[in-house]
Design a protein that fits this description.
Shape: globular
Strand order of the largest sheet: 1-4-5-6-7-8-9
Structural class: alpha+beta
Distance between the termini: 16 Å
CATH class: Alpha Beta
Helix content: 25-40%
Order of helices and strands: HHEEEEEHEEEE
Radius of gyration: 15 Å
Number of helices: 3
Number of domains: 1
Strand content: 25-35%
CATH architecture: 3-Layer(aba) Sandwich
Number of strands: 9
Length: 145
């Protein structure tokens, strides 16, 4: 079983960087502006990251031609998906969950910069149970093995 409290601490500086970007830029800009701001903030804080990292999902262990792109991969295992929209929805959450599952990364952050108060949702993937777990410890989704 994954250690959610440990993983929350692992996310702490990345979440802090997200809040700094929103504090500086405010609400109402486009997604790419926030992504650029987050890149600059991550660099400033010396948090390792890859921006717009692409990957090919596997089918029966073989890479497919399909290509997916995560907005940020921080510290080698934290997926950050940035949005600038009226509200986060289940399609956006499912996108993040699938990236976490396909890459087998334990941490995911879905952020909406567009609102007056930045909205940050933290999720965790337990590869042993194939479950997506919310920051409060509740199982959100379980994938078949």
């Amino acid at each position: 079983m994954i250690d959610i409290e440990f993983l929350k601490k692992h996310l702490y500086d990345v979440v802090g960087a997200i809040y700094e970007v929103h504090k500086e830029l405010g609400a109402g800009l486009n997604e790419y502006c926030y992504q650029e701001g987050l890149q600059l903030q991550l660099e400033e804080q010396e948090i390792p990251f890859n921006r717009e990292m692409t990957f090919h999902p596997l089918y029966h262990g073989k890479p497919m031609e399909a290509v997916y792109r995560v907005d940020f991969l921080c510290k080698g295992d934290i997926i950050v998906e940035c949005k600038a929209t009226d509200d986060l929805n289940n399609n956006m959450r499912s996108q993040l969950y699938n990236y976490m599952r396909l890459l087998k990364h334990p941490c995911g952050i879905l952020v909406n910069f567009a609102s007056k108060l930045v909205k940050v949702e933290r999720y965790f993937f337990d590869k042993e149970t194939n479950e997506i777990i919310a920051a409060d410890g509740h199982v959100i989704h379980q994938y078949r093995h």
